Amino acid sequence: MKIDMKIPNRWTVEDREQNLAHDSYFYATIFDADTGEEWTGMIGTTAAGGGHYHSPYPNIDTAPDEVRAAYWEIRAAKVREAGLKDIREQAEYFADGDVFIGDERYAAPKGTLVEVFKGRKVPKGTTGTVAWVGPDKFNPGMVRYGLDVDGERVWVAGGNVRLVETETFKVDDHRIEMFVERWVTAPAATKDCRCKVRVPVPGKAEMVDEGILIPA
Q1: Number of structural domains, the chain?
Q2: DSSP per residue over 67-111, as a string?
Q3: Phi, psi of 69 (to 5 degrees)
Q4: Which of these three, 148, 163, 178, is where a domain ends?
Q5: Structural domain range at position 30
Q6: For position 130, which CATH number holds?
Q7: Buried b (16+ CB within 10 A) or exposed e, 87-117
Q8: How crowded is the C-beta side of 38, counted as CA atoms within 13 Å?
Q9: Scanning 86, 184, 193, 195, which has its CA 20 to 30 A from the CA of 145?
């Protein structure tokens, strides 16, 4: 697809700039409502003369209802496929039971019984109950735990502990499909035609509530 301002019924889905050390590169995602074609590519750069630095086509959110509906049908298929893949992978991770609870995304809640299995400050094999959990300022994306051990509070890096009692689950694919379809067809989703729409991946507790994870 070539950028040509004379071609009607084309709409900008995304328009972004990439700044590098010496030059900028400009990209756009364009939807041609007449052909149903979606195209993403570079539309200009300061490294070479010419080209558009912003998409010449209007934003798709300003398009007529029938154009936005047509685009959403095309986009929804991609959103649906990505959502099924993302949630399935996450559900399988939880289903194994051996969850890495040092990561902020999977931090163990207060009251969880954990075991120290590595590290130097707290003896390996020490078990305690999570009484405090917070970000590890020395390790972005990870957590630290305050554990109650025999009436005393000990502090340990999240990556040094594991669950004492693990649960294993079966994954219900039909429930994943229901979750994704409910999100994809929600009014809030269908109104937003932007390129970066993605189905949110639920956490473990929500997956259990949704029936995506079934206790084995």
Answers
A1: 3
A2: HHHHHHHHHHHHHHHHHHHHHHHHHHHHHTS---TTBGGGPPPTT
A3: -65, -40
A4: 163
A5: 10-62
A6: 2.30.30.30
A7: bbebbeebbeeebebbebebbbeeebebbbe
A8: 18
A9: 86
Average pLDDT over residues 166-181: 94
Separate counts of helices (H) and strands (E) for the chain: 4, 10
- By three-state DSSP, how is residue 160 classified? helix
pTM above 0.90, yes or no: no
pLDDT in tens, 95-104: 988 789 999 9
**Tokens 């998409």 correspond to what residue?**
55
Helix extents (H) in 98-192: 173-184, 187-190
- CA–CA gap between residue 56 and residue 98 (Å, rounded): 51
Whether residue 2 lies inside any domain: the answer is no
Rounded distance, CA 193 to CA 62, Å?
10
**Assigned domain for 37 exists:** yes
Is the same domain home to 152 and 109? yes
Instruction: Report in angstroms the alpha-carbon separations of 153 from 110, 129, 131, 145, 149.
Output: 13, 10, 8, 10, 6
Say if residue 45's pLDDT is above 90. Answer: no
| Other Cβ atoms closer than 10 A to 192 | 13
- What the block records as the tokens of 23 is 């030059």
- Both 46 and 153 in one domain: the answer is no
